[in-house]
Design a protein that fits this description.
mainly alpha; 16 helices; 70% helix; 372 residues
């Protein structure tokens, strides 16, 4: 089943990436052109009314990637790349589960449906894979001992690809605080934290990039006016609601089986996801292995009760059928939404053709949602 699910996931993600033309893609591409021709901008190159406004491109390397590869591979090639990235993310997350944990289908199907809703040729998708790699190291004792000193290098790559690099530092700070509270703090964690913070300065803007991260996190206008920054309760997302109910219930029931640091991270990033829908995929990636484990822990709790094991498996089978129906509905809605934002439906295609032939001098006003 896992092979079938992987192939189906890749196909669905790839197809959506082709259909959906993300409103931000145009200006990502334009910034890539500006960077490769004129250097990395330090003032706003897109808004002619404020050309001296201080500007930090928190995904400059991704924009350059778009500029280099889009002309040769098109949106189909970029969709192929990001579909592979999404699939690798799921592979790494599922690899974190114990081999003895057999009840992975329901949470995984719901997680795929959730991620599908946020998928596209977007810089955020690369952060899913980097986040999964980071968690695979910091939350696994064996991998931590082997790979912990490579984390600052991961931060260097991340800070130049997308502003979500801050997740790594915040997570290390949380782990440091929890282990200090438990009196289990070791020197290697402190060292990795300090070097990772310094590594985040290795970008064209240096430490100033943290100022941009803070501005975006604290900007109330983003929180309430931009759809992907709005709180999760502003939108109805059945796969997320279903996964949230299952995950919260099972993790809470089996909370004593999890480490304190796992529970703190679970709660912290859940709060972030509820506060802004763009953070929902990050919580799902973190919570999926815990939710799979919680299913097995729940069976361990009830299997001593007569007939409970059989009833649990029967209930799980019905839950799987339900999750497949929910996922199918999400795929249909997702494709319909992607068609609305396709090049032929949403954007002023004929106007662009006209402007290419009759380009006036000076600036041209463009609606924000049309991107570049």
């Amino acid at each position: 089943m896992i092979i079938f699910l992987s192939v189906l996931t890749f196909f669905l993600f790839f197809l959506k990436g082709i259909v959906l033309l993300d409103p931000d893609f145009g200006w990502h591409l334009r910034l890539g052109e500006i960077i490769t021709s004129s250097g990395i901008p330090v003032t706003d190159p897109l808004s002619y009314t404020m050309p001296s406004f201080s500007y930090i491109d928190i995904q400059w390397l991704t924009n350059v990637f778009f500029k280099i590869f889009y002309p040769s591979v098109g949106i189909q090639g970029l969709s192929l790349v990001y579909s592979v990235v999404a699939l690798l993310t799921l592979f790494l997350v599922l690899k974190n589960k114990d081999k003895k944990q057999l009840f992975w289908e329901v949470p995984t199907v719901l997680s795929v449906a959730i991620l599908f809703g946020y998928f596209g040729v977007r810089p955020q998708v690369s952060s899913w894979l980097l986040w999964a790699i980071f968690l695979a190291i910091v939350l696994n004792e064996e991998r931590w001992k082997k790979w912990r000193y490579l984390l600052p290098g991961l931060v260097v790559l991340w800070v130049n690809l997308h502003g979500s690099f801050a997740l790594s530092i915040v997570t290390l700070l949380i782990l440091t605080a929890v282990r200090l509270w438990q009196r289990k703090l070791k020197l290697d964690l402190i060292l990795v934290l300090i070097v990772s913070i310094l590594a985040s300065f290795i970008n064209p803007y240096g430490p100033r990039i943290w100022h941009e991260v803070w501005l975006q996190v604290s900007d109330a206008s983003l929180r309430w006016k931009i759809l992907e920054w709005q709180p999760a309760f502003f939108s109805f997302n059945l796969p997320f609601i279903s996964f949230l109910a299952i995950s919260l219930t099972l993790v809470w029931i089996n909370r004593k089986r999890f480490r304190l640091e796992e529970l703190v991270l679970f709660a912290f990033f859940l709060f972030q996801g509820l506060g802004s829908v763009r953070h929902v995929p990050l919580w799902v990636i973190l919570s999926l292995p815990m939710t799979i484990a919680a299913f097995t822990y729940t069976l361990d709790r009830v299997k001593k009760i007569r007939f409970a094991k059989e009833r649990f498996r029967k209930l799980y089978r019905y839950a799987l059928y339900g999750s497949l129906v929910i996922a199918l509905s999400q795929f249909i809605l997702g494709f319909n939404g992607a068609k609305v934002l396709s090049e032929g439906e949403f954007y002023p295609r004929e106007a662009v053709v006209f402007l290419e032939k009759n380009l006036p001098s000076g600036q041209i006003f463009s609606e924000y949602g049309w991107g570049g």
